[in-house]
Amino acid sequence: MSFKSLFFRNTSVRQTVFKNTSWLFIGELIGRVIRFSIVIYGARVLGAATYGVFSYALTIAAFLTIFSDLGLSPVLTRETAKNPALRQKYFSSAFALKRVLLLMNVLVLLFILPFLTRVPDANALFIFVLFIFVFDSTREFGFGMSRSLETMEKEALAKIIMNLAVAGLGFWFLSISASAAALAWAYALGTGIGLLVTVILLWKYFRRIFSEVDWGLIWPLFKMALPIGILGVLGAITINTDMIMLGWWRSASEIGYYAGAQKIILLLYVLPTLLASAAFPVFSRLANVNNTRFRKVFEQVMTMSVLLALPIFVGGVILAPALVNFLFGAEYMPGVMTLQILFFTILIMFSSAVIPNALFAYNRQKLFLAFAGVGAFGNVLLNWLLIPRFGIEGSAVATVITQLLSNGLVWWWMKRTNNFSILKYLVRPVVATIVMGGACYWLSLAGVHLLLIVLAGMAIYFAILAILKEPLIREVRNILRVR
């Protein structure tokens, strides 16, 4: 198969999933790594306290981005994939609803949130937060259309350019002024550039976004989006409440320690999210049409996700002290235990991230609300109980427990929908992980540099899988085989 056919055309289900996953992986991972570079630099230059203030403000921006989407992007992907002839009408109508949500969140940010924050220095950053969340939310909406078209290469390009802009401007502005405002300026301008690129790449649809609104679609779209939207909001509460509640009881420095650990984990969360997004169009086509084929594809995607999770979890726990010191410096070492605790969420998230998209393809998302509610309420309650006494470590434990509860319920609901099983596929990955973990532990005791340990661990893990003849390794080889 030629390079062009493999990465720029949709020729089969397997190749399309591989192509889309590859482009999402390239765009998201390269983009995140680029942005992570400015996170590391900013954390070192600003110090834990000032970086904690910036992270607190950025958490609010992420929170508002979820509120301003309310499930519209995945609904847009699903409905336009099913009804290609109505793509423009769905896109225009959904954006009309999107504008209302954006306006509501802008008003909340300007007139309510300044009175609720207990991190006073963050108030000065709220004007930047406004632009960041508006640009981010609108760009993600555009990606909903790109995913329905299964042209993830466009999304990858936009994300890479955006993160290059954020990082480049961040390094420049921080060299002029080592302040939270300078970094916030970089994020605001960089996300604006990302939105501009997205509009250009999807101009065919954006140019008619105001002229082809079907007002009769607004209410149906809202009803379809609301369950998944509330799920997203509750998920945002689960993910972001810890930072907000830490701001109530703990110092800005402790927020900085926690933010450093959390940034590492959130970067790793990208991997299962990419698999889920790439597989979603295929899930949508197969659900209730060919359930046997659906189960096979779903089990393969799930197994791949867990196959990635196991070595990351074991290696992360073993190498956490070296990782924090290498990335952020000795000032952030109080966050090591927090990072080790949060690494347990890798096992939970990687094994569960694919399931919501699969259930959404079956249009069985209504119970998501109850499951996510358990996670959101549990996270708030456990943070309230644990943060005052145990600080950032208590918040990390609260995150692990609530993710285990809410994702366990989602797993149970998926098994009732299409009874899958992946345990039979995990023997080889577990064996490879044990061997890799032992090697990493020994190398760390021997004083080998972190990067060499990581490279050696990856090589050992995949070599063991190849020796054990892991089927998924053969699948990738078959896809890449040149005819």
- What is the makeup of the main sheet? none
- Provide mean pLDDT, rounded: 84
Number of domains: 2
Order of helices and strands: HHHHHHHHHHHHHHHHHH
Beta-strand content: under 5%
Number of strands: 0
Query: Share of helix among residues?
Result: over 70%
Measured distance between first and last alpha carbons: 5 Å
Summed up, the helix count is: 18
Broad structural category: mainly alpha
Radius of gyration: 22 Å
Silhouette:
globular
Pick out the low-confidence regions.
Answer: 479-483
How are the SSEs ordered, and which strands pair?
Blueprint: H1 3-8, H2 13-67, H3 72-82, H4 87-111, H5 126-148, H6 152-176, H7 180-201, H8 203-206, H9 215-249, H10 252-286, H11 291-328, H12 336-342, H13 344-352, H14 355-361, H15 368-417, H16 427-445, H17 450-467, H18 471-480
Helix pairs in contact: 2-5, 2-6, 2-7, 2-9, 2-10, 3-4, 3-5, 3-9, 3-10, 4-5, 4-9, 5-7, 6-7, 9-15, 10-11, 10-12, 10-13, 10-14, 11-12, 11-13, 11-16, 11-17, 12-15, 13-15, 14-15, 16-17
Subcellular location: Cell membrane
Keywords: Cell membrane, Membrane, Transmembrane, Transmembrane helix
GO cellular component, one term: plasma membrane
